[in-house]
């Protein structure tokens, strides 16, 4: 329900027309969702496209395009608390955010990326290309997912298939790039990684001159095959509500039809965007509409009524700002302050094995799960201390792959505690980016989904990166990286004889995790227990006798102080003492 405001109805109407005219496939997919959700989808699509148009307008120099994008983003954040905008697309977007309680701060990074793109993009390898594409697409897809959640139709993504979901988005991006190849080349852009183009010698020069050649044909064949593989993911919709599942499967079918059109376009691919035949689209969409109508009739969504948004609006949209203000961490109960340490001597990454929860409880005659409850309080204390001292990365060994062998009651208590901590979100008002490292297959689906949502919701924060290792094992991590390398070698994308350390690191589950500078273990044990073996290869080790629940931020400061007094040589000769 849009309401009776003529300006608002006109704004949503404009978003609908732009979606239908500029992206008929996307418009057809939006038609598969209930009518009450469609205006919000039009607004999100139109906003993303409006930003892209500002960034791609080659009638203006790059600096001016970047300034226009920045002005659009700034205006959006200024208008969110008011619930209105003189720009019709932003007017529809701020109304969508207020009505559906969307937190548009999650889009800030993707929007700023459009501004950065005005300076041009160049990708040396697939890893850099994937990071760029996912950083741009994931936040917008996340907003649509939240939209379904607010409508009472939660889209339960299976996080054991998380790589499949992200590869699907890679396929969306690659299909889009191949479709727009003619327009991009006309502007001097080639949004493909060097790693891919080099696999077909001569293709780079031919594309630069917009020449169709055997090398270009081979490259297009290779890339359409790769995109088809990415958008064809078995089990992607398993366990999902039939409504969103129909949208996703139809999207995959339309993408494959688009790839067929790209593959058969030949030299025309360099002159105009190829499109599937209307008959092909109808063959996909007609049965999809029938399936979607049946699915939504069985589970009607909840659509919020139109609501005015104004100053003081308590919705997330009203609180959004370009740079969010975070409160400082609460002070230490005893008033202790971090020691003065030279910033250039601080470790960038501290990893902690939090040992001693069970023993702490047993010493007090309590069940072991009470020790884990006390340990959760220690986690909060140490995170506060990390923020106070300016630490950039803190990684905690929360639940290992071996912990499943414990008594089932203790395991259930640990998982329940983790669930409550994630729901409570004790760091919501702090500049903490939460990440999760580990496997999802054995975790309860609701816990895995909560972790993913919290990670997505904090991804734009720039303070402390807190990584929780849950169902994590070091050997498992290395095995997964080796399997990823083997798959690429089998596909002919990697020469096994040329694999180096950087190749291995890029295929780790968390390739952007920095090396650990300081590994700290509590509980009077002196072993690393299968924790981050790759990242701790050169870490300084620090062992302390205190059980984890007895730990507070002062122990972290002491560990970091000890680190600053060590001389790290990484295999070189020691520096002579003056």
Read across the widest sheet, the strand sequence of neighbours is: 3-4-2-1-5-6
Q: What is the radius of gyration computed over CA atoms, rounded to a whole number of angstroms?
A: 26 Å
- CATH A-level architecture of the largest domain: 3-Layer(aba) Sandwich
**What is the CATH C-level name of the largest domain?**
Alpha Beta
Number of domain units:
3
Overall pLDDT level: 88
Helical/strand content category? alpha/beta
Ends distance: 76 Å
Low-pLDDT sequence parts: 308-323
CATH fold field value of the largest domain: Undecaprenyl pyrophosphate synthetase
| Global geometry | globular
Helical stretch count?
A: 22
Largest sheet: 6 strands, parallel
| Fraction of residues in β-strands | 5-15%
CATH superfamily (homologous) name of the largest domain: Decaprenyl diphosphate synthase-like
What is the tally of beta strands? 6
SSE arrangement, N to C: HHHHHHHHHHHHHHHEHHEHEHEHHEEH
Family: Belongs to the UPP synthase family.
GO molecular function: ditrans,polycis-undecaprenyl-diphosphate synthase [(2E,6E)-farnesyl-diphosphate specific] activity; magnesium ion binding; manganese ion binding; Z-farnesyl diphosphate synthase activity
Protein name: Isoprenyl transferase
Active site: 355, 403
């Amino acid at each position: 329900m849009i309401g009776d405001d003529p300006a608002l109805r006109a704004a949503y109407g404009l978003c609908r027309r732009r979606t239908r005219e500029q992206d008929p496939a996307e418009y057809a997919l939006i038609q598969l969702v209930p009518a009450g959700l469609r205006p919000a989808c039009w607004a999100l699509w139109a906003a993303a496209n409006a930003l892209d148009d500002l960034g791609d307008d080659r009638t203006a120099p790059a600096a001016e395009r970047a300034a226009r994008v920045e002005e659009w983003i700034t205006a959006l954040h200024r208008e969110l608390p008011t619930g209105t905008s003189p720009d019709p697309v932003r007017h529809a977007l701020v109304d969508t955010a207020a009505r559906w309680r969307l937190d548009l701060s999650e889009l800030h990074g993707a929007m700023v990326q459009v501004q950065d793109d005005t300076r041009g993009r160049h990708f040396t390898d697939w890893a850099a290309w994937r990071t760029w594409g996912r950083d741009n697409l994931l936040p917008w897809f996340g907003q649509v997912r939240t939209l379904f959640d607010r409508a009472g139709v939660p889209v339960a993504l299976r996080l054991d298939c998380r790589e499949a979901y992200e590869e699907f988005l890679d396929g969306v991006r690659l299909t889009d790039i191949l479709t727009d190849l003619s327009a991009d080349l006309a502007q001097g852009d080639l949004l493909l990684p060097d790693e891919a183009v080099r696999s077909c010698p001569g293709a780079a020069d031919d594309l630069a001159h917009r020449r169709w050649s055997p090398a270009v044909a081979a490259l297009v064949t290779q890339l359409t095959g790769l995109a088809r593989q990415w958008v064809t993911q078995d089990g992607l919709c398993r366990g999902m509500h039939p409504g969103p599942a129909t949208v996703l499967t139809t999207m995959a079918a339309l993408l494959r039809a688009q790839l067929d059109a790209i593959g058969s376009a030949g030299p025309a691919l360099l002159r105009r965007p190829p499109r599937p035949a209307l008959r092909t689209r109808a063959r996909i969409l007609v049965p999809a509409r029938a399936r979607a109508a049946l699915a939504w009739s069985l589970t009607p969504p909840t659509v919020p009524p139109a609501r005015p948004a104004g100053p003081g609006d308590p919705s997330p949209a009203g609180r959004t700002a370009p740079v969010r203000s975070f409160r400082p961490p609460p002070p230490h109960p005893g008033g202790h302050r971090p020691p003065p340490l030279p910033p250039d001597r601080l470790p960038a990454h501290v990893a902690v094995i939090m040992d001693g929860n069970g023993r702490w409880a047993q010493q007090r005659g309590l069940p072991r799960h009470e020790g884990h409850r006390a340990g959760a309080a220690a986690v909060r204390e140490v995170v506060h201390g990390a923020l106070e001292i300016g630490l950039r990365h803190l990684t905690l060994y929360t639940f290992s792959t071996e912990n499943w062998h414990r008594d089932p009651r203790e395991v259930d208590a640990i998982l329940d505690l983790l669930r409550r901590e994630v729901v409570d979100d004790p760091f919501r008002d702090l500049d903490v980016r939460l990440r999760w490292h580990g496997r999802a297959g054995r975790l309860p689906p609701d816990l895995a989904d909560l972790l993913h949502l919290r990670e997505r919701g904090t991804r734009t924060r720039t303070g402390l990166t807190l990584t929780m290792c849950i169902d994590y094992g070091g050997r498992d991590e290395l095995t997964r990286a080796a399997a990823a390398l083997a798959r690429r070698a089998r596909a002919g994308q990697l020469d096994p004889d040329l694999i180096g350390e950087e190749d291995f690191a890029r295929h780790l589950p968390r390739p952007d995790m920095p090396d650990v500078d300081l590994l700290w273990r509590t509980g009077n044990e002196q072993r690393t227990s299968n924790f981050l073996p790759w990242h701790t290869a050169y870490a300084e080790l620090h062992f302390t006798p205190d059980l984890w629940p007895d730990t507070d931020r002062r122990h972290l400061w002491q560990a970091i102080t000890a680190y600053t007094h060590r001389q790290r040589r990484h295999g070189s000769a020691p520096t002579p003492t003056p």
